[in-house]
Design a protein that fits this description.
alpha+beta; four-stranded mixed sheet; 44% helix
Length: 103
């Protein structure tokens, strides 16, 4: 996990704005040290949220890395939500609804 601060993407900003408009409390870029990952958003006590770009996260090495992260996080007791860029752009409310209703 790098100490460098990353630039927020447009889809992360959109999700963050939706959280704010709904009054959902979250933490940005919260490191999960046991899983060696930093979700884009963390909702206490155990929800990890990733906003995956359609290009970079659809590459074979990224698919494998994301799958390993998901496996470790679930094993450690976290709920993992990964939203694709196109899902966020088409219907952000449906994405957030999946978190709110545990889908």
């Amino acid at each position: 996990m790098s100490n460098m601060k990353k630039k927020n993407t447009s889809i992360e900003i959109a999700v963050e704005n939706e959280f704010k408009s709904l009054g959902i409390k979250y933490i940005r870029d919260f490191p999960i040290y046991g899983a060696k990952t930093v979700p884009d958003f963390f909702i206490a006590p155990n929800i990890c949220i990733y906003c995956d770009g359609d290009y970079w996260h659809n590459r074979p090495e990224a698919i494998a890395k994301d799958a390993r992260q998901n496996f470790v996080l679930v094993f450690l007791g976290y709920k993992v939500y990964r939203f694709w860029e196109h899902e966020i752009k088409i219907d952000i409310k449906q994405c957030i609804g999946r978190i709110k209703y545990g889908i």
